[in-house]
Amino acid sequence: MAHSGRRDSPELPDFSLLKRLARDQLIYLLEQLPGKKDLFIEADLMSPLDRIANVSTLKQHEVDKLYKVEYKPIISTSDQVCFLIRPRIQTVKWICDVANADKAAGKFRRYKIIFTPQKFYACEAVLEEQGLFGDVTTDEWAFYLLPLDDDIISLELPEFFRDNFLAGDQRWVRTVGSALHLLHSIYGPFSKIYGIGRCAKMAYESWKEQVEEGDTKARQAEIGNAFLIDRDVDYITPLCSQVVYEGLVDDIFRIKCGCVEFGHDVTSSDKSVKVMLNSQDKVFSEIRNEHFSNVFSFLSQKARNLQTAYDKRRGMDIKQMKTFVSEELKGLKQEHRLLSLHIGACESIMKKKTKQDFQELLKTEHSLLEGFEIRECISFIEEHINRQVSMIESLRLLCLLSITENGLLPKDFRALKAQYLQSYGVDHLLTFANLRQLGLLVEQQPGETLTVMESKVGKLVNDKTAGKLTDAFSSLAKKSHFRALSRKLNLVPKSDEEYDLRVPRDMAYIFSGAYIPLSCKLIEQVLERDSWTGLEEVTKLLNGHEFAFTGSNGADLRAKSDAQRIILVMFLGGCTFSEISALRFLGRERGYKFIVVTTAITNSSRLIEALLGNKV
Amino acid sequence: MMKNKPDEEDYWNSSKFKAFTFDDEDDEFSRLKESKQAVNSIRSLVEEEDDEDEVEKVSWSGEPVGSISWSVRETAASNQKTQREHAFPKINASSPSVSRSHSGYSLSSLFKGKTKPGNFQPFTDSLSESSVKLYAPELRKPKSESKDYISDWSPEETIHRMQQGKVVSLERFRSLQDKLLLLDFSVRAHDGNIITAVLIHLKRTLSKEVLFRELESRQTALRHFIHYLTEIRDHRLLLELLRALGRTEDAALLQYKEHLNIEDESKRRDFLKSCLNLPFSPEESAHVQDHYTLLERQIIIEATDRLAEHAGKVEIFQKFPRRASILNMPLITTLYYCCFYHYNEPEGTYSSPLNIRHTFRISEKQYFVTVLAARAKLKAWSDLDALFTSRNWLGFTKKKSPLSFHRVVDILQKNSAPTQVLQEYVGLVDDADLRIGLAQKHKCHDIVINTYRDLKDRQLLLGYRGKVERGSAEERKINDLLDSPHIRWKN
Question: Which SUPFAM superfamilies does the record cross-reference, listed alphabetically (chain A) (predicted)?
């Protein structure tokens, strides 16, 4: 991308230190268990573990065999077994079953559970109830933060979203506070910390408490400001189809822990390939933030350059050839490999998207965002449901409709829900209950349509006219918070202007110029004002819970260091690759560098899947 | 953004969007194809020069040899082997374990402050001193080992100590007031772990009635308790709680959810029947009733069809063997199945599509979509003809559809309908531009030619001649039209 922004963006801190800390602590924990041991690893911990350690690290510390936790009887012959798990009651129950089965069989073993990132009392209560407290010992591995890339750090806790927002369980609040504390201790002190959302506020308080408990010394700060934001402040953005390359790849192939598996349709061979997607991939790093429509031209240009580079060999003498082979060939081969992978991925994306009428889908999304031709959108969604097109997509569109319109008309709600249950199963009654609880898919309440203004007007005129007025108003009164927010923050750019996706002028480019992500716009506004002042109406529409505090550390905060332009943004409940791309864009424009910390990378499918109710 | 341009073609080709479309006809896509060709042309060149290990090294594979995920799979595989061969004396199938190195790379020694001499570079070197101070004490003493002396901590102090992972005793708090103070302080600390810990204690030491009563006014604690009960799967207590709180609809849903745990279909059906009396809202109640009725029918249909299939006397089951059982499928899938296997049955039978349509109040549009998809799959074009044909009072027939005809074409095309069939439905599309577009896409030449003729557009017709096959009937037709003296061309 031709960057028009400032060129003097500051250097990012080195986050590989976080990996080393985690690895060293794991080694320490393993050393606490002398002798040979078998290690059982929870499935969703394997990829994060792979990013920081490898088998030989574990073998060096007397780990004999490695197994995945599968909730089945174990076949280990070792007399010492260690479980590396998330603090989940079901997993602990399984371990109790294993230990009790051994006991019954008269087999003696030593058991150790290492909880990461922390243990919960509820898990220990299970050990106690099963009569194993003490027989099974426990420990904690404070592996809070996994750097996925130079500017992305993940807590790898996808369950945060459901636990916190749907169940209202605050078990991860302190975890987030501790993660922030870790970053603050190594890369801080932060000069300012802003935030919005109930959980963000609590996490801030938890962090502050932990800061006060420990002793911190003044240090050269590497991160200036921090911004915490709850996912429920903005559900619209993660529910939209992603059209920026990295987001699109995530939507279609699912990037897991910074790694994607491309199937044979991409590799055009019979085996699939796992590829790390990060800034080290020279091809990927140039296209990841681009709107999909620009990716083609970039890749074809690259392909041409590559061909030229190879063509240089013609007419070379032996000596030149030797230099070519030793100096350039390896790089070219690498580039060639990456290029053909990404071209294959693009092709596969195009095929899939053409098949599912992506164009019409995007048109519907954009209409919903703009509040235009809602009837057409509803019939599009209805048809989607009738044809049993993806169960997740249908829900996603229903949620988008509901949030943008501030709820569905009772008549529409009932009809769409009934058809949904017919197409995808009545047990989705449970899913609808979840979505209602979260406010993602609701019916408009008759009372809500009356605005203050309307009732005032009603009092001024006689009853008959008031009735008519109410009718007239009820269509107008359905101004949802999203519409109001969208107007106040200019989230939907004016439609009559041309939007060149090749030279984006604002963050809306990540959604084809149709919408500026609310989350990122808030961040932009607060950073610009250096406070929430002037955004009172906006925060009121977002249910408040905004805060801004100045750091109280002894370090010289006024120092005009580069660190002041490094901004940590923490998403509680997940963030999307599109949001990361938008922030990178904002950073280039304003001379900032953003570090995105998130409880997990999310997208529309993950968000909706977390809320399905028809799972046992 | 498209207020002035309602047409979707316009929308996508408007300058704002730089004519980018997800259409395979697109220029960009062909450019992509070109670049692919370019890359592929180099491929042979690269591969001949590739040495194998080079490829391995370059691969940014998430699971290179030596990764943990790889090793777990290896163990699993070797275990399968040992299981299969377990009649033989046990052989340790594990990979040779690397003996522990004594190089002094030990972290425990580091934290005990006696780093052994050698070339070991402590990782803390790059850390500023303060962060060492910060983490080292944490590592030195795992929390489980720290046993503090328990004295008379206040509820607030107790909560604080629990947050730090220190051992406390909650048994001392015996009065209700103390217990509730514990709970309220834990809520104030925003630490769900501690809130749940206190709740577990209260659950053990308070009667349900008292606990439920106190939770009613403490929403945060209540939500934690509900989540905890859900996680330990104590449904009985959870139901009691919800009922005590008067949340009858939540309780009903929770009870209904139980059906997911019942594998046996008859038991599941009976369970669903028992759910009909639960206090659902009238609307939800109708859905649950449908669920029960549907499963009841599926059981009957499944039994009959399985027999018919085994007997081998019904042609359709021979020609298109059933891929899966119809049990527990959604209603529309069931309707599709019945349209596929039982289309012409009289309305009196359970498996008749019409019967299903009436029993479950399926909308006309939904019904059409499903029949269309099922009959198109069977290539039963005459059924479709009948489906769309309606007769008016004068006896004239007319094709009608609750679904726009361009959607119909779309569904037909996805089921690889032949051109003659497509042509008929493309011709029924009202919008001329849309019709032309579809006709061109699906090569319905007659429609394109006739439309251009009606438009008296000689230029377009000339252009289209280049797109049809040489010497074909279509080409002759175009030539005849172009030569015709009766048409007054507009250009």
Answer: Sec1/munc18-like (SM) proteins (SSF56815)
